[in-house]
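User: Could you walk me through two proteins back to back? I'd like the raw sequence and the C-alpha cells for each, with a short line separating them so I can tell where one ends and the next begins.

Assistant: Of course. Protein one, sequence then structure:
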Amino acid sequence: MDRKLFLRLVAAAILLIIHAPFAHAQSGTLIFTSGFESSTTISAPQDCWSTPSVGCWAVLSGTDNTTGYSWGAPLWGSQYTYGGGSVALLIADVPGATPAEIGDYLSDRIVTTRRHNGDWNNQAFYSENSSAKNGQNPKEYSVTQEEVNFFPMSEPGDLYMSYWIRFQPGMIENMLGLDTSQVGATTNGGTWRSFFAFKTGTNASAGSAPLDNGDYRVEAYVLTGCSYDQITAQIPPCTGSNPNPAPFWMVNGDNVAGGSYALVNNWSELNSAIPVPDDGSWNKFEVFWHRSSGSDGRFWMAINGAQLVNHIGPNMGQASMSINRIMPELLYTGGHYPIYQWIDDIQIWDGGFPPSTCTPGVEYWCDPPYASH
C-alpha cells in the first residue's frame, strides 16, 4: 500500500476513534454511594402544598457508616439547596385531599430487608403508593407519584449511576386488565410504570427546590402493551395489527419537563429481549449519559449486566437547559394500586464509568454485575 495512503487511513481511523460515541466511556470518579445504612433517616412529609395537587417533601439525611458518605451534602456545586440536594417528593393527585392526609396515599421509609446478596442485616429505601384518584383502580390521568431526587446546582456533565431495585412481586398483574378507552391504556388493556428519570429546568436558589419548568426529559418505563404510535411505526415488539407482547422496556427522550418548550431531539428505544422481573427479586440498574446537542450524545442503561438501551444522538432540549432533577427512584404508573418497591446501594460517578475491573470486598464500591459499555 502507498505509504501516504496508509498514513491518511491511519489518521482517519484515529479521528473516527476520537469522535466515536464510545469515546465518552471513560473512567469516572466516585462522588457518592450509600446503602441507606446506619444513621440514614428520612423525615416525615414537610413543606407541603395543596394546589394543583397535594404534595410534600421528605428529606434524606445521615451518614452511611458502610461507605462514609452522607445524605444532604450537595454533589454538584457548594451552594446549599433544599434538603441538601437529596429529598423524596410525594404527590397525591386526589380530589379533596389535604397535606395532613398525604400519608393515606403515599409513604416512604427506610426498612430492614434482604439485600441482593442474601444478607438480611440490611437497610433499604421502601416506597408505596396505596391509592390514587380512583382509589385502587387505574387512575385515569393523574400525577400521583413518589420519587427520590438529587438536585444538581449546575449541569452535572457525563454521569454514571448504579442502584438496585426490587419491584413488587406480581407487578405485571397490576398493569393489565385496564379499560382500553382509558387514558394511559393500550389496545390490549396494558399500561406503563416509570422507574427512572431526569429532567431539566431552572436550578435551585439557596434554600429552595428546583423549578418544574424544563425543556427536556429522559424517562425509563416498563410497558405491558403497545401505544398507537408504536403500532403505527411497527417498532418491535409492537408489530402486526393488534400486538399483545410480553412486558417490555422503553426509554424516551422528550420535552415533558414542566416548561412550554417545543419537542426536539425526541426518541424512543424499546427492548423486549430482556425479560421484566415479576418475582420480587433484586435487579441492578446502571445508567450513563453524555449530554450533547450533537451526534455524540448518549444515553445508556443496563440491567443485571445486560445492556437495555444505548441511544446515540442529540439529547438537549429547545433551550439547552441544565439537568436540575435526577430520579433514580420513581414510583409512578397508569395501572392498579397498590404499587411499591425497594431501592438500595446507590452509586454516582462523575465523568464516566467505574473502573472496568474490581474485586468485591477489596474495593468497597465494587458491586457487580457490570455491563459492557
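----
Protein two, same layout:
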Amino acid sequence: MKALVTGAAGFIGSHLSEALLVKGHSVTGADSFDPYYSREIKEKNLRKSLGEPAFHFVEVDLAEPAAASALISQGWDCVIHLAGRGGVRRSIEEPAAYVRNNYMATFNILESMKDSGVDKLVFASTSSVYGNRRNGPFNESDSTDWPVSPYSATKKGCEVLCHTYHHLYGINSYVLRFFTVFGPRQRPDMAIHKFVDAIVRREPIERFGDGTTVRDYTYVDDIVAGVIRAAERVEGYEIINIGGAQKTTLNRLISILEEQLGEAAVIVEKPIPAGDVMQTFADTGKAKRLLDFSAKVSIEDGLKAFIQWYREEQIP
C-alpha cells in the first residue's frame, strides 16, 4: 500500500508510520508543525521513520488549498488523515485555529481527493463528538448533535463532510472515533503526561472535579492496529469507535500512577472546566465486526510502558 499519513510527526501519527513501515507499506508522512506544542518534540517523533528508505516526509499546511491539492494529486492507495488541532480546553481559547486546522484542512483534502481520483480515506475523529453524556457505552448510532467544545464541533463537522463526499463522489471513508489515547510520545499537555511529570518532580497535580469522571483509556498500539485495519479494509462510509472498552475513573488512574511510580501525588482540586465531559466509554462491537478489532493493552500495562518511556526520554 502507498499510504499518505497526515499528522505524521504527532503522537499517534509517528507510531502509525512506524507500524506501516514494519508491515512493508510505502509511507509519505505530512505535517505542518503547528505550534500547539514544541516542534522539537515532533521532530524527535519522526527520527525512527526518517531512517527508513520506504518513508518520505513533507512539511505542508493542509489548510492551504493549493498545498493540499499538490500533495493529494501525487496519488495514494489510502489517505490516513490524522492531522489537526487536538485539545478541548485550548479550543475554547482559540476556536479559529480549530476551524482552520481541522475543518478547512479536511475540506481541502476531500476536494483534492475528488479532483485527483483518490478514493480511500481513513479519518481520525474523537469520542468528544458524543458530548457530555453520563450513560454508556457510546454506540456509533447514538446522537452526536450536542458537542460541547469547538474541538468536538469541528470534528463532528469533518465527519459530516466525509459522508457528503462519499455520497456525492464515491470517496470511501472510515471515520474512526478515538477514545482517550495514551502511551509513549503522548502530548505534553495531556493528563497522564502531566501527572507523571508532576509526581516524579514531587509537584502538585491538578485534579479537575472530585475524581469520579471516567475515561476509556486506549493504548496507542491498539489505536494504530485499528487504523491499519481500517486502511486495509475501507469501503463505503462507516463511523467506527476505536476504544479500550473499559472505564477508569480519574481517582483510579492517579492511584495506579502512584503505585507504579512509588510516589504519592499531591492533589489540588479544581472545578471541571467548560468543555470537559463526565465520561467516555466505547461500544466496540462494530470495530470487532468490520475490523476484527479489540483492544489488547490494559490501563496498567499501558501506563508501565508510558512511565518507562518517560524515564528514558523525558527526565534531563
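The chain has a mean pLDDT of 96.

Let me know if you want the two compared in more detail.
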